[in-house]
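re: ur msg from earlier - yeah i can do the flavin-adenine dinucleotide complex, just paste it... oh wait u already did. ok heres what im feeding in:
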Amino acid sequence: MADSHCIFWFRRDLRLTDNKGLETALKSGKPVLPIFIFDKAILEELPEEDARVSFIHKQLCKISESLKNDHKSGLAVFHGEPEAIFKRLISEGTVAAVYTNRDYEPYARKRDQAVEALLKENDIPFHTCKDQVIFEKSEVVKDDGDPYVVYTPYMKKWKEHFEPEKHLQKTDSVSDAGDFLRDRDFPWISLEDMGFKPSEIEVPDYDLSTSLIDNYEDTRNFPAKDGTSHLGPHLRFGTISVRQAAKKALDSENETFLNELIWREFFMQILWHYPETVNNAFKKKYDRIPWRNKEEEFEKWKNGNTGYQLVDAGMRQLNKTGYMHNRVRMLVASFLCKHLLIDWRWGEAYFAEKLLDYEQASNVGNWQWAAGSGVDAAPYFRIFNPMTQVDKFDKGRNYIRQWVEEVDTDSYPDKIVDHKEARERCLETYKEALN
Ligand code: FAD
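and the outut:
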């Protein structure tokens, strides 16, 4: 029988550098077989030109090339149901242990429990590592052990616990850490093999330059300026580690950028403690709101045809690029829930389909924030005025003109609702439901 080896299971950590789980697997002393599984259950829900699937596939090609060229090894890529793939892998009788990085989303937790149980039946240990965040689960909680549900005290406690030398310690380079399994060939899987096509939408590179971070506080609110890092998809798929991003943030005296990375962890620990918020309002009584849910209005919102310029610009940017500026995300989300009284879950699902940086914790958290039902949410009676938002954040209307070409012509649609009337309607509906 062949010598035993261990498996490193890549998921949302698609890199060979500074990858905690991979380093731990390599240090086990056994050669490591790296694998990735395209999960059929997830892929089935996605359109055939999904840009995220293309991006993942491209990253896997890069990892595989580098494993071939530098380590005479390779990456085994599968398409199927994770438990079934593991059954096949362990049937060979050579798997000594499986390593992976922890994933905190409810679906991933269930999947991992099932895989762990299967491995246990076969006496194979399943080792999981913290990699995706600096603090996970209950590492930053109140003194009485309860999770924080308000951002600012969470952020302060996060910073109290944070020791850069300890928490940002980079892992050893893969070559120093151990060996990969050599000379095992697995058939490569193309996008087409899985029923997908390369997407025309590309994930842009991130910008973590000193000048971007130093100026971030002044530029981040203006969608016409390219003043944010575009880190989203890279953190989502792990093409950079959060530690590397945090290190860059610390190089600047301005803490605003670091605070944004902490927002990400805030929502991740919320999802960990309250997985039911994926479908239910965090503040339960908000589930009593009688949403109007008008399909034709939802269509207009999705396509950027509401007649509200900044809302439409944002939705068209999303549809064309898979990205929308944060300021505008806040506005379009508020507009959907409050002006149109459409259930935040509909908007959340549409963002999930389109965003390159879609992250369940941040998406659900921010949507519930916009609807008023979430943690640390704006009070429901604070309703963004879509016109004054233009004056504040896109005064020159450069962003609007970039995305809504016909905005100053007769073919631009009339307003879907009157702002004042919609505002009144929202206040009445919320008030009645919440009383
Ligand atoms: P930067 O401004 O450069 O920020 C750097 C990083 O900090 C981001 O990449 C992100 O990881 C984190 N961050 C910044 N703002 C937030 C925030 N409010 N909440 C959580 N993390 C934050 N972000 C996602 O990553 N995935 C989502 O699915 C997502 N959905 C959203 C839905 C709505 C309705 C709203 C209002 C916001 C959403 N955000 C989401 C948060 C934010 O809009 C994006 O993280 C940001 O626009 C991504 O661009 P960037 O990488 O250039 O961000």
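cool cool. Residues 220, 228-232, 235, 260-261, 263-264, 267, 326, 329-330, 333, 351, 355, 357-359, 362-363, 366-367, 370 surround flavin-adenine dinucleotide (CB under 6 Å). ping me if u need the other ligands too
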